[in-house]
UniProtKB/TrEMBL annotation:
SUPFAM superfamilies: PRTase-like. This is Unannotated protein. InterPro entries: ComF/GntX_DNA_util-trans, PRTase-like, PRTase_dom. Belongs to the ComF/GntX family.
Length: 158
């Protein structure tokens, strides 16, 4: 995870992208989804993007879309969520602190093309606070993702 996220290691990024793709493919099969699936990324902090020199989750989303084509899974990356306030790095925060930190932090934009099958993606889910905030922001514009896909989920609060 860290090698992909902090160092941009291509092999590690590919492993994460394929894990996310498998999660999406399973959701598609389990939920009997048809047609295009729109993937929505959790936004990164501006300071994290600056320090890495790239947007890790957007890079992963591009790899997921590309890998999806190879298995005839039609995915489109929908860049719908924006950060609206400065948030702290959540890595050292507990669940309550994370919820408070991220509360009200995202704004959802209307998609240019209506897509019914929406899946939120993130590389790592720890407490689910970022996912909860994404769901809140998307619900404001009446979007209801059908699933969340991740490469890794940890923690006792999921």
């Amino acid at each position: 995870m860290l090698s992909a996220k902090e160092s941009g290691n291509q092999v590690a990024k590919s492993i994460l992208a394929n894990a996310i793709l498998r999660s999406i493919a399973k959701a598609k099969a389990d939920l009997k989804l048809h047609g295009i699936i729109g993937i929505i990324t959790i936004p990164s902090r501006a300071s994290a993007i600056r320090s890495r020199g790239r947007d890790h989750i957007k890079d992963l989303a591009q790899l997921v879309v590309k890998a999806g084509k190879e298995i005839n899974l039609e995915l489109v990356n929908l860049d719908l969520l924006r950060m609206t306030k400065k948030v702290k790095d959540q890595s050292m925060l507990n669940q309550a602190q994370r919820l408070l930190n991220i509360s009200g932090a995202y704004l959802a934009l209307h998609p240019e093309v209506p897509i019914n099958n929406l899946i939120i993606i993130d590389d790592l889910i720890t407490t689910g606070s970022s996912i909860q905030e994404a769901m809140r922001a998307l619900s404001v514009i009446n979007l209801r993702p059908v699933a969340v896909a991740t490469a890794c989920a940890v923690g006792a609060h999921l």
